[in-house]
Amino acid sequence: MKPGLTRRNAVAATAAAFAALGARPSFGQAQEIVIGALFQFSGASAQIGVDAKHAIETALDIINTDHPDLDLPLAKGAGLPGLGGAKIRMVYADHQGDPQKGRSEAERVITQEKVSAVIGTYQSAVAATVSQTTERYQVPFLSSDNSSPSLHRRGLKYYFRPAAHDEMFSKAMFDFFDALRKQGKKIETLALFHEDTIFGTDSANAQTALAKERGYKIVADIRYRSNSPSLTAEVLQLKTADADVLMPSSYTTDAILLVKTMADIGYKPKNIVAQDAGFSEKALYDAVGQHLEGVISRGSFSLDLAQKRPSVGKVNALFKARSGKDLNDLTSRQLMGLLVLAAGIDAAKSAEGPKVRDALSALVIPGSQTIMPWSQVKFGPDGQNNDANPVLLQYLGGKFVTIFPAETAVSEAKWPMPG
Fold it and tell me: Are residues 20 and 143 both part of a single domain?
């Protein structure tokens, strides 16, 4: 020790060095691991953030307290055994649906709150800036519910996504169309309807490529402004095109406006197969569910899976006790995302970003130890889990049922849409 440097000052200097490097020191005894959760808690999509917090808090309860009846990562026992029983504490930040606000909030929780990792963010456009910031600070970012394929193709080393992306989801849709064609169903023309941020753009690009590859004709490709005050002109174009399938990629407020506008001008699509987002949200069905009997949405999750994985029903009960709702495609991914992230931190036996990053890269979780229909969680070099099998769900009688693929389906699809 240098002359004049007390033990207390030496400890402070070490901590300051870690903070300057954006790193987190390792500990051999129980302590607190801080993780940042970035979602939208204000504005038009504030309910997404509220539901996400319920999902995160449910996962936190599973990790921090003993749940011996759950076959999930870190459920048995309390805390992180690899870190001496350390508990996780969440720090929540509101990115307001703004990519630049997301960037600044990510930097704030890293530099001021000293988080060891970040999870979020619902909007893919926000995930793009948040993940660039976490990369710079060498802090892992767990992309829990972002589906744009471009996110994992930027050469980032600290980006991880356990769930499927929109190319995987869209492939499931077209596999479904092909299966229906073999049954003699008429599916020739498609209408794409997508918002103008990275989510809608990437979704439309994936669907356009698959339509060309599989021999479907796109008769309308409508890109609209996100959070538009009116969609009348766009819906009139959809009505004129009269495609066999309408394929919307819209967040909740836009999806509600779309369905209301279709009802107002008397446009009833033959079939709707949606890219999740707003079409998985309870708020949509509370507002306009009477117009949506038979709508199909892709997904990562279904309560039907409880028939094969008992943890699904038990976790749903925990979530419902907090939120008053069942798990859906978004909240299931958010909940499972924190469990995966915590498993990586536990395996690293450290809160340091580079060590957690290496542990996540090597992590393997069997599908049977998740609440999802996934084969497993295993990240590729780009941070994407390619074993996150999607499902298709149909809204029938006030609830969603799994209709595809055959090995997970509990009901046959109603095609065309009833009504």
Answer: yes
> pLDDT at residue 418 above 90?
no
Instruction: State the pLDDT at residue 216.
Output: 97
Degrees (nearest 5) of the Cα angle 281, 176, 206?
70
Task: Look up tokens 């997904």; give the residue.
Answer: 299
263's enclosing H/E stretch is helix 252-265
- Return the number of other C-beta atoms located less than 10 Å from residue 98's C-beta: 17
Q: What is the CATH number for 285?
A: 3.40.50.2300
Hey, what amino acid is at 376?
Q
Separation of CA 41 from chain center: 16
Considering the domain architecture, whether residues 84 and 193 belong to the same structural domain is answered as no
**Gap between the Cα atoms of 237 and 246, Å rounded:** 12
- Cβ proximity of 38 and 109 under 8 Å: yes
DSSP 113-163: S--SEEEE-SSHHHHHHHHHHHHHTT--EEESS---GGGGSS--SSEEB-S
Contact 405, 386 (CB under 8 A): no
Residue 119: strand pairing partners: 37, 142
Report the C-alpha gap between 308 and 36 in whole angstroms. 33
Quote the pLDDT of residue 346.
Answer: 98
For residue 70, name the pLDDT band (cuts at 50, 70, 90): very high
Mean pLDDT of the chain: 90
- In this prediction, residue 419 has a pLDDT band, given cuts at 50, 70 and 90, of low
Give the domain range for residue 110.
7-164+307-388
pLDDT for 8 equals 35
Edge-first strand listing for the sheet containing 189-195: 217-224, 189-195, 245-249
Asked whether residue 61 is domain-assigned, the answer is yes
> Prior bond to 416 cis, omega within 30?
yes
Instruction: Determine the pLDDT at residue 270.
Output: 95
